[in-house]
Amino acid sequence: MKNPFPCRTLVVIGLCFGLVLATAPAPAAESVQARGNLDIPRGREVGDVVVADGNVRIGGTVLGSVYVAAGDVLLAPGARVQGSLTVIGGDAWVSAGARVDKGIYIFAGRAHLEEGAQIAGEVQVVEKSASLTPQKIALVSRYLLLDRVVPGPSFSLEQLANLDLAKLRLRKTSSEKVAYLDLGRLGKRPLEFREVLDARELRADRARITVIKFINPAAAEGFWDSLRELPEDQMSNSVHSSLGEGAHWYFRCSGRADLLWTRDQYLIAIQSGYFHDDHFSPDQRRPVERSHDSPRTRDQHPAAHENRRSHDDDHLLAGQWGPLERTRDQVRQALEALFRQSSQPELEGGEK
Description:
CATH architecture of the largest domain: 3-Layer(aba) Sandwich
Low-confidence stretches: 1-11, 13-23, 277-320, 346-352
Shape: elongated
Order of helices and strands: EEEEEEEEEEEEEEEEHEEEEEHEEEEHHH
Oligomer: single chain
CATH class of the largest domain: Alpha Beta
Mean pLDDT: 80
Number of strands: 25
CATH superfamily of the largest domain: TM1622-like
Largest sheet: 7 strands, antiparallel
């Protein structure tokens, strides 16, 4: 099913339990995204509601759907959700007099429906799932919300070469124009010449950054839709969200941690891992085989590979982010700062 990202909808896929929220027309009211507790009082109307790591109390009207990860939801008497209600890692209480126009979907939690609660759609509850571990829930809550920062109108993609990777202890190896999006083992996705204004790649020893500027948002949307065909069965973890303006996708594959996001006419990809590069001498290169998810490790030591993957997932539960994720998040913050500088208005004398 295609999910055009301009719609204010949410999709989370690929957590080994096949959860897909159906798309819906964009609500007229503003959507709400929050990390932590949220209260929507009686009389207030909002679009979609997405909350991570917090409890939600709804007394008003939600014109879209409600999605909560690692938290509980209470629909007070008189509350209405015109879309669906989905909770991962928490419970849902629907009071008498509250209404949900579509379905209720609970994963790793319970549904408490008072007599007199109005549920027009189906109710699905999976209290326990071997594939939906606390680590997976932590992963969803971490990547459910993301500021999809893109360059301002004055930004030239040539400025990507100015990103100071030395501060992050990364060795820059190349900066060049590209005609594809390189996703490692998942392959290279070619760019249509007529749909792209510019595309640049900045590569370091443990990170790769790609920024693509399309001719318009529709071209960016079309390319994003083509990426959704990537085989998620080759990914160890995957979280995808398309609520609000744009979309983003986190996944791990073959010892690399990828984060992609799109908004307006841009697509940005950050990958962290160990990359071969001709700019390094043989004794400087970090072999890909050192990675926990490398093909050689999987083939020669399958049990060790699974144990290491489980160990990596345990970092999520303990609040300890692995080195791949830390590197990628540091690069993202530096890149976003570079983008925000281009969005600042210029003052007289050329100063910002």
